[in-house]
Amino acid sequence: MLKSRRDRPSQPAASPPPAAEPNVRTVTRKDLPLSCPMPDAEVWNMHPRVYLPIEDDPNHEAICPYCGAKYKLRDE
Ligand SMILES: [Zn+2]
């Protein structure tokens, strides 16, 4: 009697690649002008909207003075 049986090795859940700064939100030029909270953000909706001149920063980084969220502009 033949028994066909497939054992599937259990795969670990896919984990996101480690980020050096997990709290940094990467934005693109499509997100400009950058505002915090961002339009799609709900949990960040805790302070008046502020515009962050991220494109003027030499490192293209901005930190929201209200909630401390860090943004980094990624050139495409
Ligand atoms: Zn903020």
Automatic annotation (TrEMBL):
InterPro entries reported for this sequence: Znf_CHCC (IPR019401)
Pfam families listed in its UniProt record: zf-CHCC
Alphabetized Gene3D superfamilies for the sequence: q5lls5 like domains
Segments of this protein annotated with the region Disordered: 1-29
Start and end residues of each Zinc finger CHCC-type domain: 46-71
Protein name: Zinc finger CHCC-type domain-containing protein
